[in-house]
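Thread: Modeling a multi-component assembly for a lab meeting

Hi all, long-time lurker, first post. My supervisor asked me to bring a structural picture of a complex we are working on to next week's group meeting, and I have zero experience with this. I have the sequence lines for every component (849 residues in total). Could someone generate the structure of the whole assembly? Inputs are pasted exactly as I received them:
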Amino acid sequence: MNEPTLPSGQVPWICAACSIPLQPAKVSIAYLGSAFPVDLLRCPQCGQVWIPEELALGRMAEVEKTLEDK
Amino acid sequence: MIGQDELRRLEYQCIQDCAPICSASCPIHVDVRAMAAAVAAGDFHAGLKVLARTLPFPRTISRICDAPCQPVCKRQEAGDPIEIRALELACTEYGSAPDKPHVLPKRGKTVAVVGGGLSGLTAAFDLARKGYTVSVYEAQDRFGGRLLDFPEAVLPRRILCDELAIVESVFAEISLNAGLQPENLAALRRECDALYLAVGWPPESTFGLSVTESGRIAVHPVTFETSMEGVFAGGDMLRSGAERSPIRAISDGRRAAISIDRYLQKVSLTASRINEGSYVTRLYTNTAGIPPQPAIPLANPHAGYSREEAIAEAERCIQCECMECVKTCEYLRAYGRYPRKYLREIYNNLSIVKGERNSNQFINSCSLCGLCGEICPEDLDMGPIIKNARRVMVEQGRMPPSAHDFALRDMEFSNGDKFALARPYRGCTSSDTVFFPGCQLAGSSPGHVMQAYAYVCEQLGNAGLMLRCCGAPADWAGRTDLFQAALAEMRADLEKLGARRLVVACSTCYQMFKANLPEIELVSLWEVYAEHGLPQRSESVAPGLALPAMCVHDPCTTRYEARIQASARTIIRQLGYAIEELPLSRERTECCSYGGVMWLANRPLAEEVVQRRIAESSLDYVTYCAMCRDFFANRGKPTLHLLDLIYEPDPGARGERPGPGFSQRHENRAHLKRRLLKEVWGEEMTGTQDAYEAIRLLIAPDVQARLEERLILVEDIQRVIEYAERTGRKLLNSATGHLLAHYQPTAVTYWVEYAAEGDAFVIHNAYSHRMEIAEGVRA
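Re: Modeling a multi-component assembly
Sure thing. I ran the full set together rather than chain by chain. Output:
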C-alpha cells in the first residue's frame, strides 16, 4: 500500500457529525493479520475516515487478493 | 491433505503425458511427434537432433528401419499413416550433421562387446559414452554385420562407413577378424568386467550358455543376462525369421547396455525398468472430426522426399495427445494446462508453508460438475479432488475469506427465520412425504413453488413442506462444519415431521441429500409430474398448433440421473414441444457456471462458460434448474423453466425475463414463507423486525445494477444507513448534499452514498472492501 492513497484536488466531504473538513492522517488498515499505515483523510476530531471508491475497488482490492493468496 | 502416493495414483490416471503410439511402438522410443513437429516447421536440423537423442545411427536406420511405428500411426484413422521413416530420412538429408558424441570421463571399467553389428555397436556406443572402456570384437573384416547385406541403392556403403566411423571413434579397441571361439568365452569374460554377446544370425554356437527349448541362448527378458555372470546377450542371434528386426536389435543393445551399466555400478538390474522395448501406450487420441488426408506419395522410397514434400507430410501428423477434458471444459482450458499438471499444482498449493498460493483461484473456480470425469478415458474426475482441496484449505486456515462468503451468507439467510420452515401437511401432526423446493427456485419463482406444493399434495397426499437451503454452498466452500450443522438441523426437522420421503425440485439439493441423507427416499419433482400426469390447465393449447422445438439443458447435477432427465423430456413432450438435443446433454451436460460457485470465484471464466453454453443452439432452451434458467436468461438467451411450461398461460413470453437480483431473491423467499404460512396454515409470520429493516430505500435501476455487480444487498445498505443515522457518523458533501457512511456488519465494510428524501433514502452509490480500518473512535 505504498502508492499515494490521498486524492488530488478538492475533497468534497466534511465530517457531518463534527462539521469540520477532513485532514490527511496516517491510518492503519489491516487484513488477515497484516497491517499497513495508509495516508487517508480523517476527521481530526472524531477520527472518522474517508475511503474513496477508487481506493476501495482498486489498490485495496488488489492487496486483499495478494494477502488472501499468501 | 493428499499424500504423495495418492497424488501419484491420481497423476497416473491422467494420460496426457503418456507417449504417442508411434513412440511407444518403437523399440527405442524415437520421439516421432517432436521430429514431425520440427519438420512441419521446416527445421530439419531440429528434427535430426530429436532423432540423434535416441538413434545411434540415424542416417543408416532411416534407410533400413522396419518401422513398427507406421502401421499403428493414428493418422490412418483419417487418411494414411504418416511416412515416418521417410521423414526421418529427410531429417538426415536436410539437417546438418549432429554434434560429436559426448563421452563421459573414464570409469576404469572395461566391457567386451562381441559382434560389430547393429546390436553390438549400439551397446558399445552407449557404454563408451558412459565412460566405460569398450573393446569390440568382430568376426568379419569390417563392422556392420547384416547391414552389409543391404543393396547399395537402399543403404549406400559410403553413408554406412561415415556413420560407423563416428561410432568407432569412441571405442578403446577394435578387433576385426576376431571371432570368438566358443571355448574362449570364459577367458574373455575374465579379462573384462562385463561382456555383451551379439553375434547376429545365425550364431555359430551357443557358447556353452544355457539355451531355450528352441535352442537359442536363454536371456532374462528384461535385463538380457545369460546364465554366465556378467555376460549379456541380445540382437538377432536370439530371434528367428520374421522376428529379426534392425530396430529391435538396436533396442536389445541399448537395454543390455543399461543392464551392464547397472551391473558394474552394483545396483538393481531390474528396478523401475518399465516400458522398455515396444509397449502399448495408454494415451488416447480422438481422431473424430479430423479431415482425412492421404500421404504425400513417395515416388522413389530410397530417394525419399524433397524438403517441401517432407514438410507437407509432416504437417499431416496430428501430434497425438489426449486433452479430451481440456477440449470440453472451459475451466480446465482457461488455466492452460491439463489435469496431471493441475494435480501437482493443487498438491503444491496445499503443501506451501510460506509463499504465494498461486492456485487458490484455480481451486475455487471449478464448478465441480463432473464433466471431466465423464469425458476422461480413464474416468479422472477433478471435482472430488478440488472439493477435497477446498476442505484442506479451510482446515489450514488458508481459504481466501472472499471466495465463498457471499454464497455462505445466502445459505445463512435461507436457513434463518426469514425463510426456513418445516411443517407437516395442514392439520396433520406428521407427514410421510415432504416437498423440498430449494432456496433458489423459491428465490427465483416463488409463485411456482406454491403451485408445485399444491400439486404434490394433490398427487401424493398430505405432503409436508420444508423451506431451507440444502447446504450446497457450504459443501462447495469446503466448510464441513457449516454443512454438517445445517444437515443436523435438517435431520432434526425431518424427524419431527416424521418424513421418510422428500420430493425435491432442485437437482443440486437432490445430490446433496443423496450423498448425505441415505435414510431418506428421494423423488424428483419431475418424476412426479411425469408419472402422475400434468395438472389440468384452464386454457389448453390449440389442437394442431405446432409448438416450437426447444433444446433441453440438463442441470449438471442430473449428470447420472437418467430417470430425472427422462422425466423432464416426458413432461416437455406431453406439453406438445419437440425436443432437440444439445451436443452436450444428459451425462455430458455442462454447468451453467453457478456450480461450485465458479461464478463468484472467477467471473470472467464463468461468463465464458455461460456464453459458450447458450451459443450451442439458436433454439430456445428449457431447463429444470432455477439458476441455470436465470443465468441464461440474464444473458439474453430465451430459457424457460419446466414450471413455466407447466403453469404459465403464455410461457413463450417468459423466456427472456431476467432472473431476480440477489436482494430480490431474499425478498422473494421471505415473502413466499409469509404467504405460505398465511394461505396454507392460516398464520401470520411471527418474529420481531430488526431496526434496519424499517429503512426504506429508493434505488434507481442503474444503481441497482451496480449493487448486483458488486454483490451488495439491500439489507447491507439498510444496515449502513441505520447505523449512520443512529450514530451520526457520516460524511457530508456540501456541494451535492449527499451523505457517505460506512459500516462493517460482519467481515465486509460497506460504504453507501445516499440522501434523505421524505421518510426514505435515495441511494446514489455503494462499494465495499474487506480491509479493516483502525479508526480512532468506533461505535
